[in-house]
Queue: 2 jobs
Job 1
Amino acid sequence: MVPLSWFLILSAALFSIGLFGVLSRRNAIAILLGIELMLNAVNINLVAFWRYLDPVRITGQVFAIIVFAVAAAEVAVGLALVISVYRNRKTVVADELDMMKW
Amino acid sequence: MTILFLITAVVILASALMVVTSRNLVHAALWLISALFGVAVLYALLNAGFMAVVQVVIYIGAIAILFIFAVMLTRREMRDRGPGLNPNWWISALISLLTFGGLALLLSSWSGFWQTAPSIPSGFDQVAALGDALISPDAFVLPFEVASVLLVAALIGAVYIAFNPHTKDISRSEDFPRAEDFPRPGGFPRSRVTRK
């Protein structure tokens, strides 16, 4: 079986790619896609730590399931906000949504 | 096992790169499905079969489909005018690379970095243990209930935000493309749509 480090490095790389997406995309939905990638990287870490450090107590999987629930809540609210903003402003490009600036 | 891990890792990272760089958002959402499926394979490799099933059902079955719906509901802006990345994207790339380097450095200084997996004791039913842990009062029943309340509150809030009757429905307005704007199947609408 592969050592723990491979999973951790893969998840760090996935997290960094998601971070790049969040910071650099212009479209609000694409930013949410990047957040999903970051949440998945965290979940890989949680399940890998469960398997490699403490497989009998099930703590890591419980934590990962709660992250699933939070991710579902986050994406539902985020996409509802995007659709609502699109109805009002007819744009989902993040730099054009500046009505709360100043 | 090692080969499978390497293939899955390459698939996940390549799909994730396509998610953050692809200009067409429908393609980005489909690449996200590919990345999520790779993560489900990783869960199966880690002997967490239940997590793999939950990943497929919740992430691919619900969240990715929700993304595709949202992309299609905001479709008119999806034919990108302008670039998909903002002009400072190289700063973001630098920050991401620094984050990756920092995480790798931090992890490699940890003593347990190279350890291998202990064997799961035979006869250990992890799905039953997970179910017990989620509802047992001396384990995780409180976080579990808090998560359910959070989910209900978030979904009610999402419904309220998305279907607020005071917002104007642009599909009834003049400049929304109608069926006769599409001259042939799959064609683009003629330019009745006036852009500001």
Job 2
Amino acid sequence: VTDLPLSTQSADSNPCAAARRVLDLARDEDRAGGPVVEAREHARTCPACRVMVERQERWDERLGAAMRDVSVPVDLRDRLLDSLARASAEDLVTRQSIAPVEVRRTRRGWLRISLATTAGLLAIAASVWFAMRWAQPRIPLEDLLQQIVSDEIEAETLAEFEGEPPPLPGTMSTRSIAGAPRRFPFGDAAVYFFQLPRRRGGPVAGRLLVIPARSLSNLPAGTSFLADPAIYPGGGYCATVWVEGEFAYVCIVKGGENELQRLHAPRPLAI
Amino acid sequence: MDSRARKLADLVEQHYALLYRYAYRLTGSDADAEDLTQQTFLTAHRKFEQLRDEGCARSWLFTILRNAYLRQLRSPICVFSPSLDELPGAAIPEVDANFDTEQLQNVLRDLPEEFRSPIILFYFQEFSYKEIAEHMQLPLGTVMSRLARAKSWLRRRLATPEYAAAHSGDSITTPEDRSS
């Protein structure tokens, strides 16, 4: 009140009116204020103002008591606490609904989970299989040749190649290699058995092995039949190896390099 | 019960009665007062993080209640009435002037809210002028002026029944009313 009431005092030519106006809003807390003290002093010495101020205070007391005289419902407190408890519970439910909840699963739900799990496991198995396949240790070319040469492999002992056979080489005369390829035992390799008739000295007999180049190591740089000859002579056999595309070709004939050279010419081969 | 719920329960214990009385004096209706009080605590529950200083909880709650009330007010009572300057001299009534609670409420109803809220808080004797000014978001001088005018108005309306009867439905005009 200190900054309000007697600011009006200067404008009020009647000190009684000014004092009453100040004291109308004065509270005990305002006793220290200059204008209030001044107004109280005036009221103390002015009988008319003293009466008016006392009457005013009694009126304020009565009006204040009436203003505060509101019956509060006896159960209001409990109802408020209940509503807050409900609001808290709803909050909790809302928070839980946002968080993942454990759902009671139906049979269909379990079926879906089973299928998803199975699919996942199959995918993992396929990945492992492919990884193992690609991570298969490569076979050194020398070991392969040794195995082919040492084994007396006959066409009848091998299964026919199923599905799409590996392609025949484009740089070797294969016009007569029309027989079905055979599946070589150690993996995706096809072997063709052939014989080339000769006028003298009997036919040139041999095998053409087609194998993914990634399966072998120590492959030569040649990319066509006998163009960059990598000749591997052995006991009674002679082989040459080259790579076309993603396949390695191993051609083995009974005899020596001369027999291999005869395969270069475009002569009909007889299986 | 978590910490927040416990603090809210404490606020209910401490302030629900005064809030209800304030709401009743604002609305003049038991049901509306209950609704406002409940709405106040539910809002406090939702916005509890906004209460940074628990020492200000009472002012905060009263502000929430008043804002809720103002939102509910579709059209404040602003019918024409004589301004304070046009009122007869603010005679102090005899203390035994008779009025009952209903009359008081009727007179309060005729006061625009911007006068009603401060005068209610003033007579509750729980708030300093500074707190009332903060609650109303007004300068202290404006609040004092409104209080003086509202007190004078109440005196006139309650102490002189003939005047009250003749001016039933009148209220103090606001500066906005007069400018319009």
